[in-house]
């Protein structure tokens, strides 16, 4: 049983249905990626599966092999296309309350384009 039911009214579900615009950077049968509306680095892309998954654990445990391969490959392609691979970048998947996830549809943030602050305060 899912830890958390999927809310079809979340903002990324609306983007997937075309009800809210986005600046698309990549799309295939299983994946959509677009620029974050409030970028926290020169490159800040959100990569989402098209399926209704709330979090990375939900996706990893319940998505099909085809979806998982497509998502993983897409993150590689988008990172390369964004030009952040050589100097480096950060992937973040905030998850539920303790992870401070705001939008309950799985998204991986790709952040790069400059040297980022350390991940956690004091780390
Ligand atoms: P979370 O805190 O859930 O990991 O990240 C949600 C992200 O979605 C935030 O970085 C926020 O700026 C972004 N976001 C929220 N609403 C929209 C929107 O309508 N369009 C886009 N492109 N990004 C959004």
CATH fold group:
HIT family, subunit A
Percent of residues in β-strands: 15-25%
CATH homologous superfamily name? HIT-like
The CATH class, by name, is Alpha Beta
What's the average pLDDT?
A: 96
Helix proportion of residues, in percent? 25-40%
Oligomer state of the chains in this structure = single chain
Radius of gyration: 14 Å
Count of discrete alpha- or pi-helical segments spanning 4 or more residues: 4
Low-pLDDT ranges: none
Give the total of beta strands: 5
Q: What structural class is derived from the secondary structure elements?
A: alpha+beta
Q: Number of folding domains?
A: 1
State the CATH architecture: 2-Layer Sandwich
Shape category: globular
Question: Helix and strand succession?
Answer: HEEEHHEHE
Bound molecules: guanosine-5'-monophosphate
Task: Describe the model.
- This is Histidine triad nucleotide-binding protein.
- Pfam families: HIT.
- InterPro entries: Histidine_triad_CS, Histidine_triad_HIT, HIT-like, HIT-like_sf.
- The structure is a single chain.
- The chain has a single domain (11-112), classed as HIT-like (HIT family, subunit A).
- The termini are far apart.
- With 123 residues, the protein is of the alpha+beta class.
- Helix content is 28%, strand content 20%.
- A five-stranded antiparallel beta sheet has the order 1-2-3-5-4, with helices on one face.
- The protein has helices at residues 11-16, 56-62, 65-82, 96-99; strands at residues 24-27, 31-35, 43-49, 89-92, 108-112.
- It contains four helices and five strands.
- The protein binds guanosine-5'-monophosphate.
- Guanosine-5'-monophosphate binds next to loops.
């Amino acid at each position: 049983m899912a830890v958390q039911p999927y809310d079809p009214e979340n903002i990324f579900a609306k983007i997937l249905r075309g009800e809210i615009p986005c600046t698309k950077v990549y799309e295939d049968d299983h994946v959509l990626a677009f620029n974050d509306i409030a970028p926290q680095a020169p490159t800040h892309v959100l990569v989402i599966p098209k399926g209704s998954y709330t979090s990375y654990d939900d996706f990893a445990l319940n998505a099909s092999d085809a979806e998982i391969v497509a998502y993983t490959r897409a993150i590689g392609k988008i990172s390369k296309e964004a030009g952040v691979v050589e100097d480096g970048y950060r992937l973040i998947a905030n998850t539920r309350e303790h992870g401070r996830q705001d939008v309950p549809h799985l998204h991986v943030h790709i952040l790069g384009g400059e040297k980022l602050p350390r991940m956690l305060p004091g780390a």
